[in-house]
Write a structure and sequence with these properties.
There is one protein chain. This protein is an alpha/beta fold and 99 residues long. It has a domain of 40 residues. The protein is 33% helix and 20% strand. The protein contains 4 helices and 4 strands. It is globular and about 30 Å long.
């Protein structure tokens, strides 16, 4: 898998122009290794990140174990599994670089 690196953090910069993550419940769809999840949590969001790729979730969980943020959780799940009652539990849904 090709890794996309955003060293200048332009993606999160653009997202913060649209959303103030403080106090928001965020669903990060297709989170991969958690690159955006951690940044959104640092900005005050409580983040649930899903990805169908168990290896990506394993990598994200490994990163999370070394992260001071406790407001990120990672689940192996497909976006098709997100039902209406569950999705209404979030203020923001981010779907970035995922197909």
């Amino acid at each position: 898998m090709t890794r996309i690196i955003d060293e200048q953090k332009r993606e999160i910069e653009l997202l913060t122009r649209l959303v103030d993550f403080r106090g928001k419940r965020v669903l990060d769809v297709g989170c991969g290794d958690g690159r955006l999840a951690f940044l959104m949590a640092e900005l005050g969001g409580s983040v649930v990140s899903i990805d169908p790729d168990i290896e990506a979730i394993t990598e994200a969980r490994t990163k999370a174990s070394g992260s001071p943020s406790t407001s990120v959780s990672f689940l192996v799940a497909d976006v098709n599994a997100v039902t209406l009652p569950w999705s209404s539990a979030f203020d923001v849904v981010v779907f970035s670089r995922s197909l």
